[in-house]
Design brief:
Elements: H1 3-15, E1 29-34, H2 38-46, E2 51-59, H3 68-72, E3 79-86, H4 93-101, E4 111-112, E5 115-116, E6 123-126, H5 129-143, E7 155-158, E8 162-164, H6 172-175, H7 177-186, H8 189-197
Parallel strand pairs: 6-7
Antiparallel strand pairs: 1-3, 1-6, 2-3, 2-8, 4-5
Length: about 200
């Protein structure tokens, strides 16, 4: 091909729209849930299409020195929690609530499964009135579903500062698979979820 042909081809290319260009992705949103041991809450959200990122950490307390030793020792008012960043064009807030409910015991108010104390109590932290209404509606629907014999005890609270946990807690289920599985089953979480949800249980 001559230089003139190449030049003509280049000029033509400039006039043709770039075929692979895509519309900008929807602005990501972030929500926070507390569901007991944060190790166990990360996999179901990580596996959900539309979830961009998850970070486990601490929220709900006023102290600014949240760390695993202090929180697990009930020396602060924080709870173990997970911060979920998601693309609302791919997954809705209601779908995230569904994942949350299907991975906890919503009737347990003193913790979650074998883990007791405030730091393990379940809660939905809403960031605005829309999320609050959606969370309250989903809680009411769950209570009327007939799945549980006891009232839904999970709290719905205004979002507070979130502090990421230490690096070794992030993606613990991938870093220490055997230890994670032993805890996941041994805590009673797996058995409870299978009993309540059966084949509907989230992976």
């Amino acid at each position: 091909m001559s230089r003139f042909s190449l030049l003509a081809f280049a000029l033509l290319a400039l006039t043709v729209p770039f075929a692979s260009a895509q519309e900008p992705a929807s602005p990501a949103k972030t929500v926070i849930f507390a569901g007991g041991c944060f190790w166990c809450m990360q996999p179901p959200f990580d596996h959900a299409k539309g979830v961009v990122k998850t970070v486990v950490g601490y929220t709900g307390g006023k102290e600014t020195d949240a760390n695993y030793s202090a929180v697990s020792g009930h020396k602060t008012q924080h709870r173990e929690a997970i911060q979920v960043t998601y693309d609302p064009a791919q997954i809705s807030y209601d779908q995230l609530l569904d994942i949350f409910w299907r991975n906890i015991n919503p009737t347990q108010g003193n913790g979650q499964f074998a883990d007791l104390g405030l730091s393990y109590q379940a809660a939905i932290y809403y960031g605005n009135d829309e999320e609050k209404k959606a969370a309250e509606a989903s809680k009411e629907t769950l209570g009327k579903s007939g799945k549980f014999q006891k009232p839904i005890a999970t709290e719905i609270l205004a979002a507070m500062s979130f502090y990421p946990a230490e690096d070794y807690h992030q993606k613990y289920y991938l870093k220490n698979t055997a230890a994670y599985e032993a805890y996941h089953v041994g805590s009673g979480r797996v058995g409870f979820l299978q009993k309540i949800w059966g084949k509907e249980a989230k992976p």
